[in-house]
Amino acid sequence: MNPSEGSGASSPRGEGRRGLFLVIEGVEGAGKSTQVERLAHWIDALGIEAVRAREPGGTAVGEAVREILLDREELRIGAESELFLMLAARAAFMREFVRPTLQRGAVMIADRFEFSTFAYQGFGRGLPLEEVRRLNAFATGGLRPDLVLILDLPAAEGRARQRTAGKVDDRIEASGDGFLERVASGYRVLAEEDDRAVLVDALLEPDGVESRIRSELALRFPEPFGTAGGSTTSKQPEPPPLSE
Ligand code: Z5A
């Protein structure tokens, strides 16, 4: 079965969807950017177009919003404003990246998406989760990912990795350890209640995380990934096209 058929058909603004929508999530420093790059290279090597983009960002609106959200401490942005800024970026992300990519049958790989909003603005900031979901659904038109791979890592470990890499805290990262722990445990709750989400042990070495991600894709989407193998070192056979 085409993995996108079910979710695309249920949304007026997801109609005509043929590709596959994958999201990598997790706390800061969990290894999302690392795995997005690896996954995109693997899928490219299989002869399938893979488009990658980060959230917030990717689009001109998204990058402008990102600068306000992460760097403009002096604006004293409240939780509700933070939510609406994230969703403004998301609406542009859907329009410019996700829908066109899925409509031409390619794979969209997002570095963060709606689970970040549920985890950070819902669990982290304490905004009512149902309201956050409702507003998010307006921004996305109800179009949901086919699979959310949550890189599961204690918040403190992610921060330690970032410090080792020399990264300075942005406005959201500076919200305190309690906030970041609520985000990390929020991701686990979200994974439990959504069968499109899976936790991946991010304490593994990057190769181990990558293998786990490939195995999950092979299991969930035998076409085109089932024949491609889960190892990060084996030579991959050519897969069939994603969809017609
Ligand atoms: N945010 C929000 O609040 N609401 C929303 O709806 C959305 C976002 C969409 C975006 O920041 C901020 O916006 C984020 C959430 C909020 N704020 N916080 N926190 P971002 O895009 O810059 O996100 P980030 O999480 O801070 O990204 P990052 O710092 O680039 O981390 P990462 O992509 O997960 O990790 P990485 O860059 O791949 O790796 C980090 C380091 O660890 C690096 O040195 C790697 O070499 C190393 N690494 C990677 N994998 C491993 C493994 N497996 N073992 C050991 N070391 C590793």
Annotated CATH topology: Rossmann fold
> What Rg is obtained from the alpha carbons, in whole angstroms?
17 Å
How many structurally independent domains?
Answer: 1
For the largest beta-sheet, the strand count, sense and barrel status come to:
5 strands, parallel
Notes on the protein architecture:
There is one protein chain. This protein is α/β, with parallel strands linked by helices. The chain has a single domain, classed as P-loop containing nucleotide triphosphate hydrolases (Rossmann fold), CATH 3.40.50.300. It is 52% helix and 11% strand. It has helices at residues 5-9, 32-45, 60-71, 79-103, 114-124, 129-140, 155-164, 177-193, 206-220, 222-226, and strands at 20-26, 50-54, 107-111, 147-152, 197-201. The longest helix is centred in the middle third of the chain and has 25 residues, at 79-103. The radius of gyration is 17 Å and the shape is globular. Bound molecules: ligand Z5A.
Any key phrases for this structure?
244 residues, alpha/beta, Rossmann fold, five-stranded parallel beta sheet, 10 helices, disordered N terminus, binds ligand Z5A
Brief overview, please?
The protein has 244 residues and is an alpha/beta fold.
Helix and strand topology:
Blueprint: H1 5-9, E1 20-26, H2 32-45, E2 50-54, H3 60-71, H4 79-103, E3 107-111, H5 114-124, H6 129-140, E4 147-152, H7 155-164, H8 177-193, E5 197-201, H9 206-220, H10 222-226
Parallel strand pairs: 1-3, 1-4, 2-3, 4-5
Helix pairs in contact: 2-9, 3-4, 4-6, 5-6, 5-8
Bound molecules: ligand Z5A.
